[in-house]
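Render this sequence as a predicted structure.
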Amino acid sequence: MDILNTTGFNNSTPNVMNQTNNGTSLSQGFSIAMTILFTAIIVTSIIANALLILTIVVSRHLYSITHVFIVNLAIGDVITALFVIPFDVSFMIYGYHTFGIVPCGFMHIGFLMSLPLAVLNLCLLTVERFLTISYPFKRHTYFTAPKIAVMLISTWLYTLLISLAPVMHNSDILRVANGFCELNVSIGFTIFHGVLNFLIPIIGILVLNFFIVRIANRHERRIHCTIKDRKKHQKKLLSFRKGAKRIMLLVGVCVFTWVTFIILVIWNTLCNLCHPRELTWIGNAINYSSVSVNPILYGIINTSIRREMWKRFRKLLSIKYHAENSTESFMLK
């Protein structure tokens, strides 16, 4: 998605012919490189997130509140990989938007959904960790199955509404013109969207994670049990710290990818589309990279999930091996 023209953070509509005449069109080498990069992000995201989701779904001992929110985050990443990035691959190949107004709308809605979906799921993960360590005996009263369902449904409804709001308010801001798929939203909506769905939640997440680590350290100092019990409690506190670090890694990736994107958008808007389009697309690639990095950060780094993935993989290889041996034995007979 070329943020010069398609994200709508600027109110002007650049002319393709003018860009070409000014020598700012993308070179063939750059287009090929970005096509390969975007395709790699799509493939990595789909495979990694699918493995993460399937591993959690088929392994009953991995059923937990935390993993429910992780699956929800992974689904959001898959949506971005399937319904947003492929349009950019097409743009890199053909040099213009080859689809109609409806796919254009789906692309922008999917893109606008990606930020609140990621941030809200990180908020749910952080709140769950905070309440668990702060009120361990009341945890299950806060996170009953109906309440979790309400949280997830509310997250998706809010995300969908906030993403549809610009088009619902004025359908004329969405159009396909000069080979670009454009959504020219107002600067007010851009600021509102960034502050409400990024800045405030991220600050809240950072504050809560600070308290999680602080409470864990306080609990560790207050442990006055037998050696066996102390080891048991310390193991639990260590798991809380690891969980907080994983969430902070996800938050760090989210902050880096989106802040880079937002800075480029603001800079380009203030200087009236002054920086090279190559820089714009590099910013898009950095922004998209989170959908393939997230499942690796929480899936591969997480010991229990990694072990379960490896266990399932070895089981699959074993089944395949026995099937091949059975076939060979049958043919020899």
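Summary. DSSP finds twelve helices and two strands in the chain. Residues 2-24 have pLDDT under 50 and may be disordered.
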